[in-house]
Structures are given as structure tokens and as C-alpha cells.
Amino acid sequence: MKIGLLLLLWLIGYIVVTWVGIGHTIFNIKVLHMKSMKESEGLGEGYERTKLWHPLRLSFKQFYIEYQPWITLIYVAIFLGPVIGYFMAGHM
Q1: Residue 34 CB contacts under 8 Å (≥ 6 apart), including other chains
Q2: Are residues 48 and 59 in the same domain?
Q3: Which pTM was predicted?
Q4: Which domain range does residue 60 map to?
Q5: pLDDT digit string, tens, across residues 31-57
Q6: How confident is the model at residue 92 (pLDDT cuts 50, 70, 90)?
Q7: Do 22 and 39 belong together in one domain?
Q8: Structurally, how many domains does the chain consist of?
Q9: CA pair distance 17, 9, nearest whole angstrom
Q10: Is residue 15 domain-shared with residue 45, that is, in the same domain?
């Protein structure tokens, strides 16, 4: 039962982060008056401007070698988050 709750919380977190990204694009288009997909090439200026916040815009070498130790720490945190949550939920 508690694993189900942890998976639900993970899913909620994922959905929140996804909607923050979508909101960022909408904000760029509606408030900052950037061009949408209909008005420009590719995915539109509103989305393209969000790429500054995308870590995967880096090359493989930049992301996995030059971005050390941060990328390793991020992956460790992603792994340990649910594990710590599991133990905090009463499985110590």
C-alpha cells in the first residue's frame, strides 16, 4: 500500500513539473508575446526560449563528462528520493 502511495506522489511530482514547463511556454507566448508554432518555424519561439532550462541541450560529452559531479549527484538524488521516502513512510 505504501509503495502505491509513493508511486502516486512520484506521478504527481512528474505532472507538476511537466505543467510548469508547459506554463513557461504559454507565459512566453501570451505575456512576453513570443511567436508560437503557428507563427514561426520549428516549435516556436515561446518553446525555443525555454531550452535554456533544458539540461539535455548539452552534447553527450558535455552532459556526462564535463557536467560532473553534478549529473552524478542528480542521478543519485533521483534514485534515493523514492528510497528515502519509502523508509520515511514507516519501513525503517
Answers
A1: 28, 44, 45, 46, 49
A2: no
A3: 0.54
A4: 55-92
A5: 999 988 888 877 888 888 887 767 676
A6: low
A7: yes
A8: 2
A9: 12
A10: yes
